[in-house]
Amino acid sequence: MTVFTCADSFEGILCGVYDAWMSRLGHANVCLELADMGNLRMFAEYRQVEEDPEKADRVIGAIRRKAGQGVYECVYHASLSCEEQKADRIYRFLVYALHTGPEIVGMLHIPAVYELFRMNRFVTNEAMHMIEFVRFSQTEGGILFGTAAPKNDVVPLMAPHFADRLNAENWVIYDEKRRKAAIHRAMGEWILAELPDDSFRRRLAEAGDQAEFENLWRTYHKHIAIAERTNPRCQMNHLPLRFRPYMTEFQKGV
Q1: Shared-domain flag, residues 142 and 74
Q2: CA gap 174, 185 in Å, rounded
Q3: What pLDDT shows up at residue 245?
Q4: Whether residue 157 sits in one domain with residue 52
Q5: Which of 44, 76, 235, 238 is 20 to 30 Å from the Cα of 62, by its Cα?
Q6: CA-based nearest residue to 91, from 154, 26, 178, 157
Q7: Does residue 24 share a domain with residue 7?
Q8: Are 131 and 166 contacting, i.e. CB atoms less than 8 angstroms apart?
Q9: Are both 13 and 102 inside the same structural domain?
């Protein structure tokens, strides 16, 4: 078995697909893994994959040409998954997709197709939840700052929504787990960047009447609740506990 190790990124995984495919060793004799996973296989040969934009573009072109835009988007979403086996699952899926075409998305009886469908659904569902649950606070400089800690790398999927809805605002959505952020300039485009959040937290603490408005929102949220109709189990189904530390209405006031 030959194991190709690639970077944990969309481009890195596509470069791994390219190298594994072009090795001509046979799909059953190769495996694609994320670098630094830590678990080494006995009697396996390891090959490191170098990121190359030209290789990634060739794979993207092949996917769009042979399988269509829908399949390309499914692969992109799956690359944002938090699962360690995602690189090899994407590779196995593409073995079928590039041979079958757009119809592959409906062939869930094939394990490789089902696994990609499952990862894609998990990522897109979390992105939709995060769009609903993310809360923004305003810094002293007028920048809207939101913090989240999603399981999957969904900030790139959230950013287009807020770029459309909050196009006239300067805003930042910070992913605490990955220490990366989507940054949007008012009336402009958004970018992804590495961003330590300490400076923004200090600005929020100094943001004048920001704390007062947050307390008003928490008070409103508390008083509109009907105590007799409280149903914690139903609440957890619609609003999982892991989202609440980042929502203003569930934070303690000052």
Answers
A1: no
A2: 15
A3: 67
A4: no
A5: 44
A6: 26
A7: yes
A8: no
A9: yes
Domain boundary among the residues 98, 126, 154 is at 126
C-alpha 14/C-alpha 49 separation (Å) is 10
Region 186-197: mean pLDDT is 86
Give the C-alpha distances (Å, rounded to integers) separating 106 from 15, 62, 65, 101. Answer: 26, 20, 18, 11
Cα–Cα distances in angstroms (integers) from residue 9 to residues 111, 130, 175, 190, in the given order: 23, 21, 16, 19
**Strand, helix or coil at 195?**
coil
Separation CA 91–CA 59 (nearest Å): 11
pLDDT band at 13 (very low <50, low <70, confident <90, very high): very high
Q: Please count the other Cβ atoms lying within 10 Å of the Cβ belonging to residue 203.
A: 17
* 10 contacts: CB under 8 Å, gap ≥ 6: 56, 76, 79, 80
**pLDDT single digits (tens) 26-84:** 999 999 999 987 777 888 899 999 999 999 999 999 999 999 999 999 999 999 999 99
Number of domains in the chain: 2
- Quote the CA–CA distance of 130 and 112 in Å, as a whole number: 27
Which of 106-115, 119-128, 141-150 shows the lowest per-residue confidence on average (mean pLDDT)? 141-150
Reference 27, options 88, 101, 97; nearest CA is: 88
Among residues 122, 31, 110, 111, which one has the least CA distance to residue 74? 122
170's tokens: 């300067």
Position 124, amino acid: T
Q: Which residues pair with 45 in a beta bridge?
A: 2
Buried b (16+ CB within 10 A) or exposed e, 129-139: bbbebbbbbbb
How far is CA 118 from each of CA 83, 112, 125, 171, 204, rounded to the nearest angstrom? 11, 10, 11, 31, 38
